[in-house]
Amino acid sequence: MTEVAQNVKWIGENWKKEEVLHGKVFTFSDRPQARYAWDTGEAIGRYLAGFKQGKILGVRCRGCQRIMVPPRIFCELCFRDISEWVTLKETGRIRTFSVCYVTWDMKRIRKPQIPAVIEIDGASEGMGILHLVEAPRGDKPWERLRAGTRVQAVWKPKGLRRGAVTDIRFWRVLTGNANAGH
Amino acid sequence: MTRVAIVGLGFVPAQRKTPQYSYREMTYRAARQAYEDAGISPKEVDCFITCAEDLHEGTSIFDEYTPDQLGAVHKPMHTVTHDGLVGLACAWMAIESGAAELVVIEAHSKASNILTLDDLTTYAMDPALTRPFSLSPHFVAGLEMNAFLTQSENTEEACAAAVVLNRLRAGKNPAAAYGGETTVAQVLRSKPLSAPLKEAEKSPTADGAVVAVVASQERARRLKGRPIWIEGISWISDSPSLESREWGQAFYAQEAAAGAFRMAQITDPLREVDLFEVDDTYAYKELQHLEAIGLYERGKAGRAVLDAAQGPKDFPVNLSGGCLGRGDLLEAKGLYQIVELVLQLRGEAGKRQRACARRGFALSWRGVPTTSGAAAVLSKN
Q1: pLDDT digits over B121-137, tens only?
Q2: Which of A126, A160, B88, B204 has the most crowded CB, counting CB atoms within 10 A?
Q3: Would the pLDDT of A13 be above 70?
Q4: A47 to chain B, closest Cα gap in Å
Q5: What is the CATH number of the domain that holds B314?
């Protein structure tokens, strides 16, 4: 039994890449076909249409009086309809951020991305959108960023906007306010 | 044991496409309607359950996206990756165990948003034994239909008649997406899908959402609505093996129905139950399920369906139009059956109202390639 166990690879062992590629083990390759065309619905549909026009739209709940972004046609806390739309400013404050050195598929990148939650001016406290912040110039740029740093949206040229969150290229730190905290 | 009742119901009519709202907005509409129907606020609810599959939603860990539209923020909430009738069973268990008095269940379909539904269903097949053949998932239904017709001596004409009948009945159901007239000859002439199964015998998909409020007897008494009682509920899975499953017979349906009837103390379903909603995702499934639940002897369901399709006959099966007439609503299939039973038992089924409906039965099936089904008996008294 010991001899067999030494010579046979069992499921659960780590196979070498060459053993898989050279057909030493059974493999089955497949390319996933998982395609969707999600309905945005009213709230996100109007929100994205606003991006195309260079506007950030929010909504106000008449129950809790929160001004919310991204918008929704019902309040998840009051559980009531919302129909009042407001145009918000294109400035805000960083609530939290991270300096990300890997892409979605775990490839290392030299120039990091800076995902951040940005509280939008005009919306209620704690209401923000997730986006990217432009790295400030210089070494260790994140050292210039803080929770509370003020930023402004940098839009794509009008002709290149397509009604997507990426119609804002990124958020740029407002000069003179970079280190302003809460 | 306490008695458990459905005390509130909300739903969006099944539609071929629903570009006017997102799944959140669609579910919110059904939830608002259900809470108004029950006379409750979601803040009073002890536990929320959603029935959903990540691959159908196109979002991993979809259960994280379910609280907002149900008013379930800061509340116990979980997702069951199964048909809505199993969600109803989970609600029933939560109440029977004493963990909850008031439970909300939800299931929805945004099938129109899935561009590659057949490919996704193929992922339900075994990767080593079945997927290498690159077959459409409907081949499983073709294999089963062939075995069923051979063993039971039902006919292809009888299967086609189920399409005719259910689409006709769906015409009287404002919540159905595929009502209309067709003939047995037209169904038989439709293109083969995986012979003997034909294209017209497969339920087309639809979008929709159902929310139900379920309560203990004690809690139901304090609410304004008329409770519809869950007298029996059961769910069964057979082996998933394509190689050695019980082809031709729906063992899961037989056992799930037997469990639900036993719990409801029903010994003669045909006499003691007034209407039946029985899964017909594929036309032959209606016949197979009717025989499996004991409503007809083997080989006799086809004759009954043919007779019903040819003229006015008392055939209280799939008065809603079933999946063939209403549409295949994925995980929401079972809860749409519950919608029909509740409306009928409340006397709110409009043009298709069955006189003196006191007790109804539902049997759902999870679709190919599964051998899983659930059954429920509901009563107005």
Answers
A1: 999 999 889 998 989 99
A2: B88
A3: no
A4: 13
A5: 3.40.47.10
Helix (H) / strand (E) element for B340: namely helix B333-346
Q: What is the pLDDT of residue A11?
A: 57
State whether B264 and B276 are in the same domain: yes
Q: Give residue B152's domain range.
A: 134-204+231-379
* Position A9 confidence tier, pLDDT thresholds 50, 70, 90: low
Interface contact A41-B110, CB threshold 8 A: no
Residues B165 and B197 in one domain: yes
Pairing of strands A150-155, A91-97: antiparallel
Count CA within 13 A, CB hemisphere, residue A140.
3
- B50 and B13 share a domain? yes
Confidence of residue A110 (pLDDT cuts 50, 70, 90): confident
Give how far B128 is from chain A: nearest CA, Å.
Answer: 7
Residue B126 lies in a domain: no
Write out B122-176 in H/E/C secondary structure. Answer: HCCCCCCCCHHHCCCCCHHHHHHHHHHHHHHCCCHHHHHHHHHHHHHHHCCCCCC
Ranges of each domain in chain A? 41-173
Is the domain of B252 the same as that of B320? Answer: yes
Check A72 against B58: CB less than 8 A apart: no
pLDDT at A8 over 70: no
- Say whether the peptide bond before residue A115 is cis (omega within 30 degrees of 0): no
C-beta separation of B305 from B162 below 8 A? yes
